[in-house]
Amino acid sequence: MTSTISISAERRTGTGKGVARKLRLAGRVPAVLYGHGRSTDALSLSAFDLERALIGHGVGSTLVDLTIDGSTVKTLIREIQRHPLRAAIMHVDFFEIHAGEKIKVEVPVHLVGSPEGVRNAGGVLDQIMRTIQIEVLPERIPEYFEVDVTHLNIGKSLHVRDIPIADATVLSDPDATLCTVVPPRLEEAPPVAAPAEEIAEPELIRKPRAEGEEAEGEGEAEKAEE
Questions:
Q1: Residue 37, pLDDT above cutoff 80
Q2: Residue 128 CB: number of other CB atoms within 10 A?
Q3: Are residues 85 and 168 in the same domain?
Q4: Between 20 and 30 A from 19 (CA), which of 13, 58, 154, 189?
Q5: Are 138 and 94 in contact (CB under 8 A)?
Q6: Count of C-beta atoms within a 10 Å radius of residue 216
Q7: CA separation (Å) from 33 to 9, 11, 152, 179?
Q8: Does the pLDDT of residue 174 top 90, yes or no?
Q9: Domain boundary at 98, 129, 161, which?
Q10: If residue 94 lies in a helix (H) or strand (E), which one and from where to where?
Q11: Phi first, then psi: what are they for 114, rounded to 5°?
Q12: 7 and 64 Cβ atoms separated by less than 8 Å
């Protein structure tokens, strides 16, 4: 079953880009908490504590005990926004959950083993889907789905319908392909460069001389010989 992490948060009164920028400069992450039957709460939490708590956990399938002003709320992280260059967490959306109420979650897919088509035929394993969406009770959320691909040969695939999933309703398309083993990619021979055309020597065109006319320089040469 899924794991649970604990994080503390504080309420914040200000909103907007200016407030969010100041929070991040102070080492905190702006966040919101929402859910059925409650108004949205604006929060902030330690960026360091959040990053440390998330190590080794799937974001969308991990329960979070969120403590606010001494009161703990059971939540699920719906979205994490990260900086496009630094990968730092910029914002977090928490969704309050209740026991006995099913929720929709994205559960990671972990492929296990080396396919036969890769080992013996030089094929390549291509993972097309990395999560499967299900509807499940919070206490039944699996941490991940483990899929054995050892038996896959060239051209063979696994689909969502091939994965045994208990205590949950599968929302992803059952015919969707999870992974497949494709043939080895043939390397194309580099194009042969066309031989460079030989550059012809320029033809020397001489102007015909009139009878008795000396070529330029010939008169001087004869005088020098005399």
A1: no
A2: 13
A3: no
A4: 58
A5: no
A6: 8
A7: 10, 10, 44, 35
A8: yes
A9: 98
A10: strand 89-96
A11: -110, 120
A12: yes
**pLDDT of the residue at 184:** 87
- The sign of the dihedral angle between the CA atoms of 204, 210, 216, 217 is positive
Structural domains of the chain, count: 2
**Residues 60-80: tens digit of each pLDDT:** 788 999 999 889 999 999 899
| Tens-place pLDDT, residues 180-206 | 999 987 666 566 665 655 555 555 555
Question: Residue 48 is part of a domain; what is its CATH number?
Answer: 2.40.240.10
Distance in Å from the first CA to the final CA of the chain: 115
Across the chain, mean pLDDT equals 85
Q: How far apart are alpha carbons 161 and 129 in whole angstroms?
A: 13
Q: What is the DSSP string of 21-75?
A: HHHHHTTEEEEEEEETTEEEEEEEEEHHHHHHHHTTS-GGG-EEEEEETTEEEEE
If you average pLDDT over residues 125-138, what whole number do you get? 95
Same domain (yes/no): 79, 143? no
Domain that holds residue 64: 4-98
- Shared domain for 72 and 20, answered yes or no, is yes
Do the beta carbons of residue 28 and residue 47 sit within 8 Å? yes
Asked if residues 78 and 62 have their Cβ atoms less than 8 Å apart, the reply is no
What is the 8-class DSSP label of residue 140?
G
- Own/partner pairs for 22-28, CB < 8 Å, 24+ apart? 24/88, 24/90
Please tell me the number of Cα atoms within 13 Å of 161 on its side-chain side. Answer: 5
